[in-house]
Amino acid sequence: MKNKFYITIFSLFLNLCYFNQLFAEEFTFQVSEIEITNNGNIYKGIKRGDIITNNGIKLISDNFKYQKKINQLEAFGNVKLIDTINDIIIDADNIVYLKDEEKIFTVGKTKIIIEKKYTINGSNIILLRDKLLLSSLKQTMISDKINNLYNLNEFEYSINKEILKGKNVEIITNYLEQDSNEYFFETAFIDLKNNKFLSKDVKAKFNKSLFGDKENDPRLNAATAYGDEFNTYFEQGIFTSCKKNDKCPPWKIKSKKIRHDKIKKQIIYKDAWLEIYDFPVAYFPKFFHPDPSVTRQSGFLKPALGSSGNLGSSIYTPYFHVMSDDRDITVKPRIFGADKFVLQNEFRQKSKNSLSVVDFSFAKGHDSSLDDKKDNRTHFFLKSFVDLNLEKFLTSTLDIQFEKVSNDNYLKLFNLTSPLIDGDNDVLESIVKLELESEDYYFTTSLEQYETLAGLNNDRYQHVLPNYNFIKDFNIQNINGSFNFNTSGSNTLTSTNNLATVISNDLQFNSYNKYFDTGIKSNYGISIKNINTLGKKSTSYKNSAHSNLMTSYIFNTSLPLMKNNEKSINFFIPKLSFKFNPHNVKNNNTLERKIDINNIYNHNRLALDNSLEGGDSLTIGFDFKKNKITSTNDIKEIEDFLELKMATVFRNEEESSIPQNSTLNKKKSNIFGQLNYKVNNIFSMNYDFSIKDDLNTIEYSSLDTIFDFHNFRTQFNFLQERGVLGNADVLENKTKYNFDDTNSLSFSTRRNRNLNLTEYYDLIYQYKNDCLIAGIQYKKKFYNDADIKPVEELFFSITLIPLATFSPDKMILK
Prior knowledge:
By secondary structure, this protein is mostly beta strands. Helices cover 3% and strands 61% of the residues. It is elongated and about 130 Å long.
C-alpha cells in the first residue's frame, strides 16, 4: 500500500513538471503526459507523442504502452511508424513492436509504403525487420509506380530481394486505365526486381478491346506459367478470344507450350491443336502470330485455298515483311496446277510527309484460248502522296499515280486485289497532280494519261498535258450577292495526233435570296464565259485560234406553302426558273448528259465546260412533301411519309446545240420527277422517272423498293432506259434472312432483260459470332470476255477473329 502511494505521488510529480522527454534505454519518449507503473516496468502515454528508437525507428501515435521487461511497445490510435533506415512507412490502427525480436505486426487496417515504390493495403501484417520480410494471412492489395495491382489472399514479400509470394493471386496491369489486363494464379512466385515469375493454375483475362472488339473476352488458361522480362512461358495452355458464356467457345487453341516473346512481340505455339466447338480441326507443330501490341511485324498472313473455272485450283500464302521502320512489303504468291502461278507484291514506304505504295505482279503459265497466246503477264501500279507543307497554303499536296498492265483482262482473270486496284480497271490512269489551297483561292494542275483497255491501239490512249484549274470566291461591298471566278485549261491529245487546246474563263454572280411580303422567294444569277480554243486534226475545234465570249442569265422564284393538322405537316412549293442566253454556243448535241429532278434548276445543269446552255427556257415544277405526326407517351415525332417532285422545261424553239439525251433541246422537254414513299418502317419505295412530253412513254425509270420485316429483308432495284436516254433494262434483287443473331442466308442476282440473260447468282449461308465467321458461298457468273469464261464456283470459308483479320494494307493506309 505504501509503495503504491509513492508511485502515484511520483507520477503526479512528473505530470506537474511537464516532462516532455523520457529515456527508457532503447526508447526515447517525446510526449506531454506519461504514466509509469509496476515499479517502472510499464510506461503509458496519452495525448499523442513520438517514440524514437536507437535503431532508426520513429513511431507516432495517440496512445502507447511500453513493457520494459519484455521490451515490447504497443501503439494504438492513428499510428504511423517510420523506418528511416529501410525507407518504410506504416500507417495502422494498432502496431506492436517486439524490440528484441525486431518483429513488428499491425492490428486492423494497415497501409505500408516501401521505398516510394510499392504501396501495400491490408490488415494484420507482420514485418520481420532483421530479415526485411513482410507477410500476412489476410486479403492484401499491393500497387507499384507503373500502375500494376496485386491482390493476394495471403502473401510473403522480401523487401531486399523484392520477391513476392502469394496464394490466389490476381494481377491487374495498368489498373488505372480501361485497357487493363487481369491474371489469376492459384500460387505465384514473383521476382519484382528482375521481372521474373513462376506460377501454377494460371487464368489470364485480357482487356476486352485488346483486338478491337469489346464483345470479345480474350483469355488464356494454363497449368503453369513462368517467365522474365524477355519471355513468358505457359505450359498446357488454352487460348481463345471468344465471348465468355456457359457454352464452349466457338474456337480455341490448345498447346503444350506457349511462349510470348516480348522482344520480337510474337506469341509462339508448339504442338498446338485448333479446336472449333471442341472438335480438333487442325494440328500445328509450330506457328506464331504477332502479339496484340503489334501494328506491323514480319510473318505469314492468312492463307487461302481457291478454285476457278478459268484457272483451276490454287493455294494462296501471303507473307508480310517489315524492311525498316518506314518500309514494308507483302509478297502474295498464288500457285495453280500445271506450272501456273502469279506472284504479286505490295511495297509501302511512309515518311513524315509522304506515303508511297507500289503494287506489281508477274504471272506465268496461262495461255488464252482465244487471241492472246502470251505466256507471261504483268502489271505495275504506283500511287504516291506528298504533303509539301508550303507555308502560305492551308494545303499543298503532290499526287503521283501510274497504272500499266500487259494484258487487258489480266486483273479480272486473276482477280488481283490491293489498295490500288479498285476492281473496275477498264481505264488505266496515270496522273501527276499538284494541289494548292489558300484562304483566298484554290489551284490545281496536272499531267494525265488515260488508257482504255478495250480500245484499239490507235485510239486507246488520251493525254492531257497539262490541265489546270483556278477558283476564287469573293464579294464586293454594297452588292447583294457573291462572285465566283474560275479559270481552267487543258491540252488534250487523242488518237495519236488529234490535239485540242481549251482555256475557259468563267465569272459567275449569284444574288442572295429576296423574300416578299406575299411569301415569294427569288434570286438571280449571271454567268459570263470566255472560251479560247485551238485544234489540230480535231473533230471539235478549228485549226486556228478561236475566242468566244458569251453570257447567260437565270432568274429563280418560288412560293413555299405549308399546311398543318393534327396528323400531318404538308409542304407545297411551286417553282419557276427562267434562263436566257443571247449568244451562239458550241454544238454539244452528241454529248451524254443526264437531267433529273436534282439538277434541273441548276445554272449549269448540263455540266458544260466549253460552252453555256443556249437559247431561252422556262423551267416549271413543284415540290410536295407530307410528313406524318405520331404521338407516343405524349411525345410527338415527325416521320417522312410521301414526297413528290416534278419539273419540265419549255422553249420558244428547239435548240440543236444542247445534248439530245438531256431532252432539253426540244420545245417541251421530258417531265422529270421523283417519288419517295415510306409506308412504315417495313416498306419504302424510291422512284426516279423521265416521261416524254406526250405522256405516253416513260423513257427513264429507276425504282428501288425495300421490304424489311423482323429478320427478313429484300431489296429490288429496277432500271430501264429507252429512246434517246439509253437502252438498259436491268432487274436486281438482294435478299437476306437472319435465322437468329448468328445464322443468316443471303441471295443476290442481276438479270439483263434486254439480253434475256441472268448475269450472276450469289447464294451465301453465314454463321457469325463475336470471334468466328464461317460461310458457304455458291457463285455462278455468266460473264464472257476473251479468256474469262462463265464459271460456277462453290466456296467454303472460315475466319477466326482476330487471328485471321490482321491486314498490313489497312494498317499502312489508315
